[in-house]
Every structure is written in C-alpha cells, then in structure tokens.
C-alpha cells in the first residue's frame, strides 16, 4: 500500500472507531442498566413515534406497591430481583405491540399500539405473581394506570402520562391492586 494512502486512512479509521464508541455509549445511556428497559429519554422517543402512528395507542404507568417494605425486609438484592422481574413481565406483556421503560425507582411505563390487542388482566396477573428469591416467595403487587390516547382532546404524550398517573393513584386508592383506566 502506498504510504500516502496509509497515512490518509489512519485518521479515518480513528474517527470510525471513535464514532462506534460514541454510538455504543449513547445506546447504553438509553437503557436502564439494572432492568435493560428503556430509560425515560429512550422510551419517550419510542412512545411519541408509536402515538403518531397508532391512534388507538394507550399509555400505562406501573408502580410497585410496598416496594420499600420489600427492600427493607428482604434486602436490596431482593428489591433488585423484584425490579428485574417486573421489567421482564412488562416487556413480555408488551411484546411486539409496544415498548416498556423504567422511569426510575419502582416506576415503570409502557405504550401499546392498541389496548384492545393486549390483555390488561394478564398484565395485572403477571405483576402480582410472587417472585421466588433465595428460597423465599416474595409477594409482588403493582398499581397500573392506563390512558387511551383516543380519549384525549389532543393526543399528547405528556397529557397521556398525566392521565395514566391519575388513574394509577386511583388504583392505589382502591386497595393497591389492579389497574384503572383514565376517564
């Protein structure tokens, strides 16, 4: 190879490697390191895309019930196991019909293309299934708030999140189990 060509290719190779590293870091920053779910930024971009393409989309907020007590009683490893199990159950439930994310702490979010295409009762059942951990069966429970975008005057993600949040708190008020649709 000609020395001039090699000298020109070395900086290009360096920039290509640098670009690859930056792309990998950006992708990693959009994923929660514990659960593998999208972080708020990564999920928001996907949710907004889903909402634009699917008028029957719905937004869900999921909050684990009694998470602090579980963490305090069984330790942080058990709390982490509960978060990972919740993420896996939510991701599985969304399947090809939606995207799940972790907002932080014990709060999760999902967007699905069409609520009629998924079984909300199945999600509730999955999130309330006990978790085997270190020979102990940990009780899990979650409150779910749901907002159908079609019920909003203008289908904006921020409004859907606010309505799902209100529905989630209403579900918590009903005994901390189950789900509630926004109205």
Q: Would you write up a description of this structure?
A:
This protein is an alpha+beta fold. The chain is flat and about 75 Å long. The protein has helices at 3-29, 40-53, 67-74, 76-94, 120-127, 157-173; strands spanning 58-64, 98-104, 107-112, 131-133, 136-138, 142-148, 178-181. The longest helix has 27 residues, at 3-29. A hairpin with a 2-residue loop joins strand 4 and strand 5. The termini are far apart. This is GGDEF domain-containing protein. Its EC number is 2.7.7.65. It comes from Streptomyces anandii. It is an enzyme of class 2 (transferase).
The percentage helix is 40-55%
Strand content: 15-25%
Question: For the report, how would you describe the main beta sheet?
Answer: 5 strands, mixed
The end-to-end span amounts to: 70 Å
- The total beta strand count reads 7
Q: Provide the succession of SSEs.
A: HHEHHEEHEEEHE
Rounded Rg: 21 Å
* Low-confidence blocks of residues: 20-28
Protein name: GGDEF domain-containing protein
Domain GGDEF: 55-183
EC number: 2.7.7.65
Pfam family, one: GGDEF
Secondary-structure map with pairings?
Elements lengths: L2 H27 L10 H14 L4 E7 L2 H8 L1 H19 L3 E7 L2 E6 L7 H8 L3 E3 L2 E3 L3 E7 L8 H17 L4 E4 L2
Brief synopsis:
The chain is of the alpha+beta class.
Short descriptors:
two-stranded antiparallel sheet, 6 helices, flat, 183 residues, single chain, 51% helix
